[in-house]
Amino acid sequence: EPEVTQTPSHQVTQMGQEVILRCVPISNHLYFYWYRQILGQKVEFLVSFYNNEISEKSEIFDDQFSVERPDGSNFTLKIRSTKLEDSAMYFCASSVVAYSGNTIYFGEGSWLTVV
Amino acid sequence: AQSVTQLDSQVPVFEEAPVELRCNYSSSVSVYLFWYVQYPNQGLQLLLKYLSGSTLVKGINGFEAEFNKSQTSFHLRKPSVHISDTAEYFCAVITQGGSEKLVFGKGTKLTVNP
């Protein structure tokens, strides 16, 4: 079964460093997402991406965050200058379409630890 | 804005016992409803979803959920659980025809004991 793949599975970085989390969405999907889960808290929406641009973002997704689809297969989340509070599990997800209850498929997550 | 409440953070049960994981939501507009499961060290996997039609929805691994519009609930049930069902279960909603984002509950950790 096709799946969303994420790398790295775990990254430790120093505060203030830039981090790039990578994802390969399911190949025929058109919508891509990033969610995060801080330990012990809810899974939260960060951003959705369609047709090479952000289609929706949450208040969490500030200027420190950016997303990009650098080629036909990868989808990346960049955090420019990491803070301690960015420590979380980051989930990439994709779906064929949005707005119609289509299933959103999630990757296994990238656990980011900022020290 | 939508919100999802999962009333139980942890549910311990014995193997072969029935289980119900509760989920209530709040929304001013119609929503689609989902249950996701996260096994240890894995990602989120869709168990089942309610879009329309019959309010009783069957999913994978013998789970089912019932949508109750008047009570704004979408409780997840399984008549007989296995050790392998030990996982975290997340209820989520998404606005019909509106936002693209899933809004999740805090999750319920189901532990099945022998």
What is the number of helical segments of chain A per DSSP (H or I, 4+ residues)?
0
Radius of gyration of chain A: 13 Å
What is the structural class of chain A?
Answer: mainly beta
Main beta-sheet annotation of chain B = 6 strands, mixed
End-to-end separation of chain B: 41 Å
If interface size is counted as residues with C-beta under 8 Å from the partner's C-beta, which chains form the largest one?
Answer: A-B, 26 and 25 residues
Give the strand content of chain B: over 45%
Quantity of strands of chain A, as a count: 11
What string gives the helices and strands of chain B in order?
EEEEEEEEEEEE
β-strand percent of chain A reads over 45%
Continuous helix count of chain B:
0
Query: Which segments of chain B are poorly predicted (pLDDT under 50) over 5 or more consecutive residues?
Result: none
Order of SSEs of chain A: EEEEEEEEEEE
What average pLDDT do the residues of chain B reach? Answer: 93
Radius of gyration of chain B: 14 Å
Find the count of extended strands of chain B (DSSP E, 2+ residues). Answer: 12
Q: What low-confidence regions of chain A span 5 or more consecutive residues with pLDDT below 50?
A: none
User: What would you call the shape of chain B?
Assistant: globular
Can you offer a commentary on this structure?
- The complex is a heterodimer of chains A (115) and B (114).
- Chain A is mainly beta.
- Helices cover 0% and strands 50% of the residues of chain A.
- Chain A is built from no helices and eleven strands.
- Chain A has strands spanning 5-7, 10-13, 19-24, 31-37, 43-50, 53-57, 65-68, 75-79, 88-95, 105-106, 110-114.
- In chain A, strands 2, 4, 5, 6, 9, 10 and 11 form a seven-stranded mixed β-sheet that branches.
- Chain A starts with a strand and ends with a strand.
- The relative contact order of chain A is 0.34.
- Chain B has 114 residues and is an all-beta fold.
- Chain B has strands at residues 3-5, 10-14, 19-21, 24-26, 31-38, 44-50, 56-58, 64-68, 73-78, 87-95, 103-104, 108-113.
- In chain B, the strands form three sheets. In chain B, strands 2, 5, 6, 10, 11 and 12 form a six-stranded mixed β-sheet that branches. In chain B, strands 3-9-8-7 form a four-stranded antiparallel β-sheet, with no helix packed on it. A two-stranded antiparallel sheet of chain B has the order 1-4.
- Classes of the chains: A mainly beta (115), B mainly beta (114).
- The interface between A and B is medium-sized, with 26 and 25 residues.
